[in-house]
Amino acid sequence: MKTVFVTVGTTSFDELIERITSSDTVQALKARGYERLVLQVGRGSLLPAADSCPNIRLEAFRFKDSIAADIRQADLVVSHAGAGSCLEALSAGKPLLVVVNDKLMDNHQLELARALHMDSHLLYCTCSTLTETVRTMDLSVLLPFHPGQPKHFANFLDKALGV
């Protein structure tokens, strides 16, 4: 069953959860062959019920000790732009769509998403452009991010964030 795994990490990003479960976005996911949507909602106020999206199989949880299995089982990972979440998805070799929280001040997430996108490791958007991005995304353009070199990732982050 073709699965999308959505993670917000330890944060609260209700706008992403609302948008990914909206009828427009669910319809766009279904049109691309996705049948299952697994949400990790973190500290957000939303925890959608399994029957809240009638056109797709929905599962939601707040936290687990590890989301590695959820990422491994996913055909697409949709994530906030936290460095840890991005690295985990990219290290697993999964196509990654990052949704930047454009309401954050001093948004380093946007810088990270742009830098990884420029190297063709992920696609990114905001909540307002999520549905259209899902409709038009071409995952075949993504290049693997080679894991196992934390120093390289740390240097990449420093460069991306201007440190």
UniProtKB/TrEMBL annotation:
Its EC number is 2.4.1.141. The keyword Lipoprotein does not apply. InterPro entries: Alg13-like (IPR039042), Glyco_trans_28_C (IPR007235). It is found in: Endoplasmic reticulum. It comes from the Eukaryota. Gene3D superfamilies: Glycogen Phosphorylase B. Belongs to the glycosyltransferase 28 family. This is UDP-N-acetylglucosamine transferase subunit ALG13. Its main location: endoplasmic reticulum. Keywords: Endoplasmic reticulum, Glycosyltransferase, Transferase.
